Amino acid sequence: MHTSPRRRAFVIFWIAQTVSLGGLQISGLGLPLTALTALSADTRTLAVLSAAGTAPWIIFGLAVGTVVDRFPRRLLIMISHLGRTAVLATIPVCWLFGVLSVTQLIMVAGAVGILAMIFETAYHAYLPYLVPAAELSAANRRLAITDGAARASGPAAAGAVIQSVGAPLSMIIPAACHLFCGAATAVLPATPATSRRPRAADLLEGARLVWRDRRLRRLVGQEMAFGFGFAVASAALLVSYADAGLSSSMIGLVIGIGAVAGIAGSVGSARIGTLLGTEAMMRLGLVLRAVGLGALPLLFGLEIAPVVVAAGCRAAMSAGWSLWDIPRLTIMQSAATDDLGKINGTALFAVRTAELLGSSTAAALAAALAPPAVIMVGATVATVAAIGYLLRRR
């Protein structure tokens, strides 16, 4: 008898997440463009701005899991949305008064990064409370479809908005989106705090829980390896596209095709899972994304239009990511409910750290290797990890 209210609550949650994704597309593009167009920022400043947004994962990644288990998860989601509303709103206000500065943008990026980290950890821990266990996979699939649609249409829509009103003023829209999401979250079912143990004892508990569970350990390890490899390859990707003769519009087309393939993978995951089984579908996803990444150096080695190779690789990676990630999330969310915050915090901390190490490795490799070789290094790491997973039994 509780199914109908819970489904209605999920629909509200889903709508809020959709609105949030729309806002994130604008803020993700608008923040660096504000620095570039309104403050004439150079490449170094843009790099610092990007680092300020990702650094919280490295600094606070383990601690945020204990916070999510210590306090009500719905409350933390609300705080993350309303906090981003307040922080992002300072950009157009300060720009209108002529006091906007690079220092402020860096502080905004850091604050948004912290709040986004809290949201992502709490969101994955809250969903199993909101949705019955039997419907968790379907819920993750619907959210993945929405995410894919945002990635497909978001950059073009965000660019149009920023072009029409200017980067600083465009920040009003994501601020309003997060305000709506915070209000929508307020009507969802409340969750009690699930952990009151001493903070010091909690910090490494998530790592212990992941390590003791063989399947969680394998899932997180696979995500770390692919995240590292993809980060290495991504650093050289745009240069390789340009060297292969792809124009900006062609690169946009490649990204769009990848996003559509990701949506198709999400939509088809239920049927594929029924036909093959969950484990076989995940293995298929691993193969597709490893092949998609590993085939990228063929941009320079085949008598085929580079845009076709690039689009095919991107489509394989995106579809494979959906087939792998939807059941992976469901498995992790089905773990110990009271400790989901710590488990998710540990997993996200590990993956984000691997991605940062991958970017750093790519910067070092770029001094000695050509872009296709850098991509090959990243692809090799990801492929070897995928083969290791495929050769092991559950």
Automatic annotation (TrEMBL):
Keywords: Cell membrane, Membrane, Transmembrane, Transmembrane helix, Transport. Gene3D superfamilies: MFS general substrate transporter like domains. It is found in: Cell membrane. SUPFAM superfamilies: MFS general substrate transporter. This is Transmembrane secretion effector. Pfam families: MFS_3 (PF05977). The lineage of its organism: Bacteria, Bacillati, Actinomycetota, Actinomycetes, Propionibacteriales. GO terms for cellular component: plasma membrane. It comes from Microlunatus soli. The chain crosses the membrane at residues 12-33, 45-65, 86-119, 171-190, 224-242, 248-268, 280-298, 373-391. The keyword Protein biosynthesis does not apply. It is a multi-pass membrane protein.
